[in-house]
Write a structure and sequence with these properties.
This protein has 368 residues and is α/β, with parallel strands linked by helices. Helix content is 41%, strand content 19%. It has helices at residues 10-32, 37-51, 60-69, 85-100, 140-153, 197-214, 249-261, 297-312, 326-339, 351-361, and strands spanning 73-75, 81-83, 116-128, 167-172, 177-184, 219-225, 229-232, 267-274, 280-283, 286-289, 317-321, 342-345. The strands form 4 sheets. A 6-stranded mixed β-sheet has the order 7-6-5-8-11-12, sandwiched between helices. A two-stranded antiparallel ribbon has the order 1-2. A two-stranded antiparallel ribbon has the order 3-4. α7 (249-261) packs parallel to α8. It starts with 9 loop residues before the first helix and ends in a 7-residue tail after the last helix. Mean pLDDT is 84; it is low at 102-119 and 363-368.
Length: 368
């Protein structure tokens, strides 16, 4: 085997490093703009011009064409540049890597299991019935065959069935989860000079990618709530954004409860990301809104009642508070107590890691 050596091409090395940095910056801007490619490219151009990043080999148009060739973006009939499904997945993958890269695949909290035992997924194998087995799990065909064979062997002309004839399906131990992630999209998520929306959106993207790639039997439902609550298709999560909305926490919890109760997963949970102040209550055809400086007792009580409803249906609520206002912290403490759930009071930089660790470990824990 022959090797041919040549001088190191420093210019090519610098070009590749520049392109890598531009791609990282572009994805960071996409996270800030809720997936708005046009706005991200405009901001990228302003930054590149200010710091002299463009050169004869790379400018905005060449960078855009590179993204199109790679299948990350596309231009529609109206000339608008948007993300492709590949670009959306890349954004979710980036969020997952940024937040969760330190977690070991087989580390603590792994909730997949190869064991068989009481569960909800039938296996083709059957076994004799033992006291305590669920009646719905009895195999009628195998039980009847056992009864026929035994009756004929005993010389009986009538077919009778006894307990020893009963056969039940083996079941696979099922630890799959149905999770509802509730993301506060009210205007308060960007007030007071602090952007809480971008970290919340990043966490949602990372959780979507985690579940789809590592826990495919789990189910994730993302609910965005402001004046109203709406379930967001998972492919639309990169575009979650705040609006001129109030905070209808009660409606979000109610929607999550109803969605989770329809799920076939045996384990259900709610993750709530919010700054903690419910300001909307739908009371029949009437709607109450109160964004005053104090918590409205009627709105708060209705929200707490929904937390109690979730507890009665064995749906724990884990709240991730992204503010330390004493009044709002007090409300979250009440919600946590009534639901018997958990609450994390976390900085925005640690929001994603706290949420995922709790998702994977799935047990009561204290994070400081």
């Amino acid at each position: 085997m022959k090797f041919e050596y040549s001088g190191w091409d420093h210019k090519k090395e610098r070009a590749e490093k520049l392109l890598e940095d531009l791609l990282k910056l572009f994805k960071l801007l996409l996270g800030k703009t809720a997936g708005d490619v046009e706005q991200s490219l405009e901001w990228l151009d302003q930054i590149a011009n200010k710091y002299g990043l463009w050169n004869e080999d790379m400018d905005l148009e060449k960078f855009k064409k590179l993204l199109e060739r790679d299948g990350q973006v596309r231009t529609d009939g109206q000339g608008q540049v948007t993300l492709t499904p590949k670009g959306e997945k890349s954004l979710r993958h980036e969020a997952l890597n940024e937040i969760f890269s330190n977690l070991d695949k087989s580390g603590a909290g792994e909730h997949r299991s190869r064991a068989t035992g009481p569960g909800f997924e039938r296996q083709p194998e059957v076994r004799p019935y033992v006291f305590g087995d669920e009646l719905w799990n009895i195999s009628a065909t195998d039980s009847l065959n056992n009864a026929v064979r035994r009756s004929l062997a005993d010389g009986q002309t009538d077919i009778t069935m006894t307990e020893e004839d009963l056969a039940v399906y083996e079941t696979e131990y099922n630890t799959s989860f149905a999770t509802a992630l509730l993301v506060d999209c009210s205007h308060s998520m960007v007030l007071y000079g602090e952007d809480r929306m971008t970290p919340a959106r990043k966490v949602a993207m990372g959780l979507v990618e985690l579940i789809q790639t590592r826990y495919p039997k789990d189910r994730l439902h993302v609910i965005a709530f402001g004046d109203d609550a709406v379930e967001v298709p998972l492919k639309e999560v990169p575009y979650l954004n705040y609006g001129p909305y109030h905070t209808n926490t009660k409606a979000a919890l109610e929607m999550a409860r109803k969605i989770l109760l329809r799920s076939k997963c045996p384990n259900r949970q709610v993750f709530l990301i919010t700054d903690g102040k419910p300001t909307v209550l739908d009371d029949g055809p009437r709607r109450m809104m109160d964004s005053g400086p104090w918590l409205n007792p009627k709105i708060v009580n209705a929200t707490l009642q929904e937390g109690a409803q979730c507890r009665r249906k064995s749906i724990p609520i884990t709240t991730f508070m992204v503010t330390d206002d004493p009044t709002l912290v007090s409300f979250v403490e009440d919600l946590t107590k009534i639901n018997q759930g958990r609450a994390f009071y976390t900085s925005l930089g640690k929001l994603g890691q706290f949420l995922l660790v709790d998702y994977i470990k799935n047990r009561r824990r204290s994070v400081r």
